[in-house]
Amino acid sequence: MSGRRAGVVLALLLSSSLLGDEGQWPPDQLASFDAKSWAALRARGLMFSPADLWDGKGGGLLTGTIQIGGCSASFASRDGLVLTNHHCAFDAIQLASTPERNYVRDGFVAKTRAEEIPAKGGPSRALLLSRIEDVTERVRGPVSAFAAAKTDVERDAAVERAKKEIVAACEKTPGARCQVASFYDGLAFELQAQTEYPDVRLVYAPPRAVGEFGGETDNFRWPRHTGDFSVLRVYVGPDGRPAPYAKENVPFHPARFFRVSEKGVAPGDLVMVLGYPGRTQRYLTASGVRNAEEWFYPLRSRTYADLIAILDGATKDDADASLRVSTHVKSLANVETNARGQIEGLRRNGVLARVAEEERRFAEWLAKAPSAAAAERAAPKALEEILAKDRARQERRFFLEETERNPGFLFSALQAARWAEERAKPDLERDAGYQQRDVARARDRERNATKSLAPDAQRKALAYLIAKAMKASAGEPIAAFGETFGRDASAAAIEKRLAQLDASTKLADESVRLANLEAPLETLKASGDSYVRLALALSPDLARVRTERKALAGALLRARPVYLSALREFRAANGRLLYPDANSTLRISFAEVKGYAPREALLAEPQTSTKGLLEKETGAEPFASPARVLAAVRGKRFGRWEDARLGGVPIGFLSNADTTGGNSGSPAVNGKGELVGLNFDRVWENVAGDFGWNPERSRNVMVDVRYALWLIGDVDGQAWLVDELLGK
Amino acid sequence: MSGRRAGVVLALLLSSSLLGDEGQWPPDQLASFDAKSWAALRARGLMFSPADLWDGKGGGLLTGTIQIGGCSASFASRDGLVLTNHHCAFDAIQLASTPERNYVRDGFVAKTRAEEIPAKGGPSRALLLSRIEDVTERVRGPVSAFAAAKTDVERDAAVERAKKEIVAACEKTPGARCQVASFYDGLAFELQAQTEYPDVRLVYAPPRAVGEFGGETDNFRWPRHTGDFSVLRVYVGPDGRPAPYAKENVPFHPARFFRVSEKGVAPGDLVMVLGYPGRTQRYLTASGVRNAEEWFYPLRSRTYADLIAILDGATKDDADASLRVSTHVKSLANVETNARGQIEGLRRNGVLARVAEEERRFAEWLAKAPSAAAAERAAPKALEEILAKDRARQERRFFLEETERNPGFLFSALQAARWAEERAKPDLERDAGYQQRDVARARDRERNATKSLAPDAQRKALAYLIAKAMKASAGEPIAAFGETFGRDASAAAIEKRLAQLDASTKLADESVRLANLEAPLETLKASGDSYVRLALALSPDLARVRTERKALAGALLRARPVYLSALREFRAANGRLLYPDANSTLRISFAEVKGYAPREALLAEPQTSTKGLLEKETGAEPFASPARVLAAVRGKRFGRWEDARLGGVPIGFLSNADTTGGNSGSPAVNGKGELVGLNFDRVWENVAGDFGWNPERSRNVMVDVRYALWLIGDVDGQAWLVDELLGK
User: Fold this and answer.
1) How far is Cα A420 from Cα A518, in angstroms, rounded to an integer?
2) pTM
């Protein structure tokens, strides 16, 4: 990009709308905004300078935000309390539960710090950002392997190799977890170093009937009355350094934390939503949007809906099995609902037409822009060719990958086979996720798999996926499936055959699965286990699919960075600043507490309360509040948390923050830096927001921290915890 | 009731709130309101006096409202055009359709009067009110059979007999259709005489995708974008008198009609909704509300949902069968959705608690009121005893009655058996619905049954109901079922047996069914038809169920009128006037165009337009508008019907009119007496409104007449019809 020219254009055209409510800004981009933007934010109540938020050296208010179990979270006391969503801590709550102590159903309350229990599963590790470093030069500079790559696969491998080397060097520091993140689809790369804290404990979780109030019915909906929060605490060794769980560990004292606000929010308030948004696709071409709208999401929605029906049907008369598949079903349901929302949102928001129009104007500009290089002019066509070629194979790949990730015996066997193959390579040449650094997580997964083992249900789901994969691979059959299942590729026939495999496999035994994870290929081959045999036979096909993905990635690395660079220039020429797509790195979104018009003749106000909870209450799931909550609401025992205007304790609120998946658990912070709520969802009309922000409909859903304080203090009587959150 | 005392209380306490928006007022009650009420209505824009609305002699503005096919409707031109709902004219549209001319799918457009076609089925007869006469004295006066009755069955028979005599005398006038309606559960009786016009023709119907836009998804919902209207015309003989269809017939010139408004409505406007509401239960005791909430509606919802699933499942691969059961499925779906709404509404509106509280205050008042007679004081207890006794048998009755009314061979056979039995009695002693006057309708039903015959699907539904009935009758087995189906009372076994019956019955033949309707019992017995045999065997059980119903009715006639009379006095003492429950007689509701808050944090505005139609459009049912409509909306070809504030042609609007089933097709008339819309639904939150009006949530849904005019004139090019509706 022609920096000088763009700079002039910026100075001429950019107003304070630059830092509008659209944008998931990386910390290091904040310093580049103009004074007018900051003045506008100060006028809205922001009491911080850009440098207060992020000092460029790993410090600043933003670092109160952490990552935990794939979610965002925040420090909320000087003694290391962490707030995140109930659904982000769900693994920990479920894994700590037994039929006798059902924390999922009843909630978890530590009455003292001594009663705080280790969080297992996803939420067992807290990741705190420590450093950001631009590594573009090392990854793809003129003297890199990237520059020298002759094929797409080589190009991808070069980038992956460089990333791994950088990560490996970074992770030599004890407790460091590092990643190299791609910005603008490979135009820039940043090393993001985090410190991992492996002793996280569960402090408070509401009953599921609070944390998931409304269930799937209300998922992605507004008005909302879900208490989707949990309280954790990070512990460190007596020396103050990250340490695995030990009795003598002490609460961590984070450099930055967000004191919880007693005042809460009101419509019009400024809020900043901080977190780790996972992935957006704001800069797709029209053909990409069309593919998402017409192929990917419809197929995902159908497939996941079918899987949910299969798992529900197979466990409906078996409470134990039903509990075992619940995490999987929940995750499928969430993704399925999201997929429908994407389809509906893309259609209703007319994203395709808008993107097509933008593409047309971009092409016009590109044809005339004096600054555009030949490569930039050629980028759109090159990009479309890559995509068209890939789409011919996408359905086969879809079902093979879904088969590969379906929880159960085959998954464990494939993991073992994969580890055996990757372990044979030097660490740095292994695929991401199969390096020495990933061993602990793989073992955790197998341990947790014991709790979610439900062979009868998982077999039915697997049979369904294999049948689909076989059908989608008619032109290029999958040998392993042909050998194992013969000619009758019906789900019923496949399931019958899988039942035979189930009868002879040893993989129900956790110790066998753990041993397999470390077994060399020869040992696996010799084991003769029915599923290990199938996995080994299937591995070449899955490896080819991975190579296909790598070739695609390498090809896109040719075209997308050039395309994005040209697009950034085009936008700047029109007075609009490009922010990078979400990539699971720390971002900040500036927003306002604000309602919206979901559709014609409906207005959504931005706050809900216990009054609306009572309206929804039916006594039956998903609208069955726990007795103690109901009694407090009906008895109007709201204590100091009553909001007279709302007629009860505030529960949910909306803002126009720019969020996506991964922002779950994100703190919403007011202009004073106080925590006022936790992000946990988007509204239905904004699910397709990943493809484009919309001022009318981009709204995220948060739980008001006052609801949490009321439940913890007034309903469950833990005044000590409320005091700690309030900094008293 | 102590009239004098109540009168004094009224004069002291009643303000203009008397004629508030609650109340479905009978025409003859209007004159009894005070001057203040009328002044308030005039201030809101009403340009009529009570006598203008209803002159007490069968004339007045209200008589522009008619009854058609169980719905309400209105005259809308001097040449007898009639406006009603699409769903009210649906039978006629469907029965006129063939695979080649699919009026259901494409809509029906008569380009000239000559192209107007006879409306068959339900909408083939228009009923115009001609006279109201108080007949309480004759039905239940001191010298009546009612007064002399010694048993509950006798008491019911006495009332039925008296009603039939009055109706028979009334119907000696050619073309007269008469009914005796009970007010306040038998406290008063009125003869309502209507003139029947048997030549009704279809003039215009929108495509189903307009008339049912949103389908079940939007049923009972707001915001709404359904063009639920159709245009019919009443014809009479050249002499101006009612006459069956004949080529030489001419358009009817009604005494009153509502000119269609060009201006439409705006929020805050006064509207009157006129029509024939079917049934409300505003004066139930708490035990009655509980029975409705906890037994009746849940059972109905489950049963009908099962039936829908059975019929859909049985016809999903057979387009023809699917079309044949569509009317039945549609009606089941409507009732099922309604049942769920009732349950949810009763619960959410806390009706039971409110009724219980009112009951408590009523009991208190009753204990102390000097005017209350001993019978009045005893009425609540007597009533509860009757109800408790009846509830012990209600589930058995429920399934037997559902079995009896399930469309198909058994239905036809039972009808034939019933007619044979009833025909043996003198006309006046027959049960309602089986008198000479009902023959034509019974024959119509059998003729229409040919079009909806779908033996495979209907058999499955019947098997399901019989299995349920057998289960609910375990303590008192149904002999005919035991004989026919043996011991295995599973639906599968029953269906197998029914398939044998299907194989040998002759009832698929319309002429056989029509002949059976007139056959004496001996002929039926001799016929040996498989279903006729089952029907004859089942008849005694069904007759006992009817007797049970009659005994209940007779018992309630002891208790309910006294109870209602006392309640009326109690209400008057508290400044509230009692209006009678809906009973399918003409009523008027005064209302305002007004939004509402469906629940916390949501506001519903009272108007929708083509803008929102486009938002909902998905291209797939139930949101797939016809191409010509979509093109006009997308091209913004709104003509003079655009409402700039709404951004398109207005489609739906809300008011707080007091409506219920039977009000479908009701005209909404502005203060000048111009027609501005047609009622066709209520909002979900108001479905339980039958048990109590609620100012916050009682909203009905109407289609704006401007949408109809735009579709007819601008989209379908029938300017002549628009001109006629506008009186040009």
Assistant:
1) 7
2) 0.82
